[in-house]
Amino acid sequence: MAALADHPGIVFDAASVKESVIEAVRSTLGRVPPRFVPAHPIAGRETSGPGAADARLFESHQVVLTPVPETDARALTAVTQLWEGVGARVSVMSAAAHDEMLAVTSHLPHLVAFAYLQTVTPEHMRHAAGGFRDFSRIAASDPAMWAPIFTQNGRAVLAALDDLEQELNRLRALIAAGKREDLVQLIEESRRRRRAFGKPSVNEAVAVSPAPVIAIDGPSGSGKGTVAAAVAERLGWRLLDSGALYRVVADAALRRGVALDDAAALALLATDIEIRFAGEAVMVDGVDRALAIRTEDVSAAASKVAALEPVRAAMLDLQRAQRLFPGLVADGRDMGTVVFPDAALKVFLDASLEARAERRYIQLKNKGLAVSVSDLLATLEERDRRDRGRAVAPLRPAEDAVLIDSTALTVDAVVARVLEAARVRGIVTRT
Ligand code: DC
User: Fold this and answer.
1) Whose CA is nearest to atom 18 of ligand 1?
2) Domain shared by 160 and 253, yes or no
3) Cα 16–19–21 angle (5° rounding)?
4) Any domain includes 329
5) Whose Cα sits closest to atom 4 in ligand 1?
């Protein structure tokens, strides 16, 4: 702040609380410079860092500006235009009004999610499904960001918490007294409010359609990884190699001595490690494991951990968070059936067992690894059986998938078919 005091340009911040920021500026500089515009873009996710960047994040999202009496009108206009330029809708209010509003719509839900997670054990999570996932998503948010938000907006957060406590007590009393009719009424009213959210009258935001996805599923050795990478490259889209995620968990389990059938421990492990894709690198807790996760040991272990529902559930948000503009090419076993059921194009890539074993043999030989084709045939067959036969998210073509048999096709020919299918569906205009 001191360094910016005499800066000739316009300065704005992006913090989730406004009164404390303005207070900090005032106490540091003795005044609020006219060219400082307090701002809060209300858009974000539970992910952070450059890897989570999204060029269209602010489209149709709100940005609140909270000017003080000293704020220069031209600076306010310039910041408004800048935010509108990236597609945001700008509103102007007092810092106090902003902080009170955000305490209710953002800070309190996060507080409640964090508190709730304190009551949940790994054993509970083993049986958790959609309700848990939706309600607890924001509990995965960054502590370094949220602890200061709660303390800096303490007054408004505590007021919102008081209101919530009252509501909880009301619910508690209704349950204790067995007042089912009253409960129905209360829930009906909450449901009505929630359903109105997002409707134009309540929130003018136009629903932004999510980034398009091309899902490519198929068995090991069908060439889906190579094809997906080539399609992503051609379109300039992001790439998700979902198999790498299960490989990373398997690799970590082998290294830490976690049993490959201990679903709860593996699910915890899966949420505990930080996985980030950076080009070819697969960064696991800051270390590149791209090569390490390709060994036959890890392949076999990955197919085992991938059969466990809690592990798959733990991976779901991470996979969906990769869906960013301009688009995502995702390869795996359940991209079209489970992870991205609304994918714009679903491809199921298959090849004969012999062709797949042969490809794998050449791949490994090129890496200087000695294996026999017959061993490969046997292990591939076993992994196929496990991936296709498991109870959760088994490998199978989505009903609306385009089937491609790559046994007698070159990689280029398969890529051309996928791009053509994308063009026919109007997903991409030029391939
Ligand atoms: O595609 P791959 O060989 O890297 O996948 C490794 C293992 O993970 C494989 O046995 C199947 C499993 N997998 C899965 O179950 N679901 C996915 N979406 C991707 C891979």
Assistant:
1) 332
2) no
3) 70
4) yes
5) 243
Q: Which residue has its alpha carbon closest to ligand 1 atom 16? A: 333
| Domain residue limits at 166 | 1-172
**Of 322, 333, 348, 385, best ligand 1 pocket probe by most atoms within 8 Å of the beta carbon:** 333
Model confidence over 171-182: pLDDT tens digits?
999 999 999 999
Is 197 among the domain residues? no
| pLDDT class of 209 with cuts at 50, 70, 90 | low
Per-position b or e across 273-298, b if 16+ CB within 10 A of its CB: bebebeeeebbbeeeebbebbbeeeb
Task: Using pLDDT thresholds of 50, 70 and 90, give the confidence band for residue 367.
Answer: confident
Could you tell me where the DSSP H helices lie in 177-293? Answer: 180-196, 224-235, 242-256, 263-272
Query: Does residue 184 or residue 321 have the better pLDDT?
Result: 184
Tell whether 381 is covered by a domain.
yes
CA angle 136, 139, 142 (to 5 degrees): 155
Question: pLDDT tens-digit profile of 3-19?
Answer: 888 888 999 999 999 99
Pair (159, 231) in one structural domain: no
Whether 303 is in the pocket of ligand 1, judged by its Cβ within 6 Å, is yes
pTM of the predicted model over 0.70: no
Could you give the 3-state DSSP secondary structure of residue 236? Answer: coil
Cα 34 to ligand 1 centre (Å) = 56
Predicted confidence at residue 403, as pLDDT, reads 96
Q: Ligand 1 centre and the CA of 330: distance in Å?
A: 12
Counting the structural domains of the chain, the total is: 2
Domain shared by 255 and 376, yes or no: yes
For atom 9 of ligand 1, the residue with the nearest CA is 303
Structure-token pair, residue 414: 């398969």
247 lines ligand 1 (CB under 6 A): yes
